[in-house]
Amino acid sequence: MARWGLLALVLATPTLAEETPDATALERLVVQDCGSCHGLTLKGGLGPDIRPETLEFYDPELLLEVILDGIPDTPMPPWRPLLTEAEAAWIVDFLLTGEAR
Ligand code: HEC
After folding, report:
1. pTM for this predicted structure
2. E strand or H helix that includes residue 38
């Protein structure tokens, strides 16, 4: 019987992921994927420094657009194919506060 419980959990997971951003997965994405260009500590590499102290003057709406649509004619890619708006909004909050909530 425990097996059915597990199956239900596995089947329910994709739906859950669409509604509630998965903080652990998103934090990993920010460090590994964003970090591959912006540096593992986000202090800059190929891409600029995107730590909270650097982004604090940014309008959160604009940050959301930068993440979802990228910056044309630069290596900053659009993430819309991979992230929902809710996930991108989670990342904006994470970048601005430096905390996973
Ligand atoms: C392939 C390399 C690459 C990846 C991967 C990447 N970026 Fe960028 N990003 C850049 C570059 C290069 C720029 C600067 C573009 C320019 O010249 O304006 C940039 C700019 C930005 C900016 C604007 C910073 C500013 O001060 O104007 C933000 C915010 C940003 N990226 C966030 C992210 C986030 C969040 C992720 C992961 C979801 C990510 N980037 C992944 C290369 C990358």
Report:
1. 0.81
2. helix 35-38
60 is written with which tokens? 């959160």
State residue 101's pLDDT score. Answer: 83
Q: Answer for the pair 86, 21: CB distance below 8 angstroms, yes or no.
A: yes
Q: Are 47 and 76 in contact (CB under 8 A)?
A: yes
Residues 6+ apart with CB under 8 A from 85: 64, 68
Find the residues whose C-beta lies inside 6 A of ligand 1: 30, 33-34, 36-38, 46-48, 50, 63, 66-67, 71, 74-77, 79, 91
Domains of the chain, residue spans: 21-97
- What is the per-residue pLDDT across 52-91, written as a single tens digit (0 to 9) for each? 999 999 999 999 999 999 999 999 999 999 999 999 999 9
Q: How many CB atoms lie within 10 A of CB 99?
A: 10
CATH superfamily of 21-97: Cytochrome c-like domain (1.10.760.10)
